[in-house]
Automatic annotation (TrEMBL):
Segments for region (Disordered): 23-45
Name the UniProt record assigns to this protein: Membrane metalloprotease
Keywords: Signal
UniProt feature, compositional bias: Polar residues: 26-35
Signal peptide region: 1-17
Length: 305
């Protein structure tokens, strides 16, 4: 009897061990993580200014693999279609072939709005994916609360923002609310356009620069001048994904390049402008705008496709 009980206990232990090993998400990446391991990782390569990893994202010189951690509040996971479109965008403009998506479900911070500093703090608390020997890691947080800088009375809402070289926030609650206002566009459309636009800034578009070790660096220099003179870091070419009209006017309090706590935001994407653009695109074969020839030329000049 004791031997039979022992066999059962051993069997249960093996089963539990196997279940633990199989704790993976849709991408096949283990999601359990180890807090001590994360604490011991050198995170300095993921704490640089927006655009600083442009060449590393575009080429395979230093990193052959790209790991994207999608951290989302429960119930606010992005649509599979938008993620497929996003990966296709990355493959179209970079030489990265080994792209892994790791989904990380998180509890709600229980905030009515989120300041950029709060989003940065949540990243420090929850992010598990950082650069390793041959893998470049990007963190994208899908929030269940709008940006603190939004003014709904004026119809000014933020869809997404980039604030470090491998860090981005997508305001998923705002995206869903915006998409529901038009029968011509879907959550997938707005998610795709927002992800691609913000990642364009991680690519260093347009003529994005930052200060490192006291030196001003342009991460993806323009081959030809196409930056909007009235909106830094955005394209002046009509119909481009990086078009300046996608950014809020400079009087909008949510659009700040440096907030009071020092976190840098290269772009706060306009909900109203995006809605207008996607409604215009709805009758065309490509529902989401792509990069224009000038932006593509800039990326190619920095090692991209």
């Amino acid at each position: 009897m004791k031997r039979f009980s022992l066999i059962i206990l051993l069997g249960m232990a093996i089963l539990l061990a196997n279940c633990s090993k199989d704790n993976t998400d849709d991408s096949g990446t283990n999601n359990s993580g180890n807090e001590n391991e994360v604490e011991n990782i050198d995170k300095s390569g993921n704490l640089l200014p927006t655009g600083a990893s442009a060449n590393d994202l575009l080429t395979n010189t230093n990193f052959e693999n790209l790991l994207i951690e999608i951290a989302y509040v429960a119930g606010y996971r992005p649509t599979p279609e938008a993620m497929d479109n996003f990966i296709a965008f990355l493959r179209q403009h970079t030489f990265k072939q080994n792209i892994t998506i790791n989904y990380l479900e998180l509890p709600s911070p229980e905030e009515e709005t989120l300041e950029l500093q709060e989003i940065g703090d949540l990243e420090i608390e929850n992010r598990t994916a950082y650069n390793t020997d041959n893998t470049l890691a990007v963190y994208i947080y899908f929030a269940d609360a709008p940006s603190d800088g939004d003014d709904s009375d004026e119809g000014l809402v933020t869809l997404g923002a980039v604030y470090r070289n491998t860090s981005m926030v997508i305001y998923e609650e705002t995206i869903r609310s915006l998409a529901s206002r038009s029968v011509l566009i879907s959550n997938e459309d707005v998610e795709t356009a927002t992800l691609n636009h913000e990642f364009g800034h991680l690519f260093g578009l347009v003529d994005l620069s930052g200060t490192q070790n006291g030196e001003e660096i342009t991460y993806t220099p323009m081959v030809n001048d196409h930056e909007d003179p009235e909106a830094a870091d955005h394209c002046a070419v009509e119909g481009c994904l990086m078009r300046a009209e996608l950014q809020f006017n400079t009087n909008f309090k949510g659009e700040t390049h440096l907030n009071k706590n020092g976190i840098h935001s290269a772009c706060s994407l306009s909900g109203e402008s995006m809605l207008s653009l996607l409604n215009t695109q709805a009758g065309q074969s490509a529902r989401v705008p792509g990069l224009d020839a000038e932006c593509i030329l800039d990326l190619q000049n920095n090692g991209g496709r």
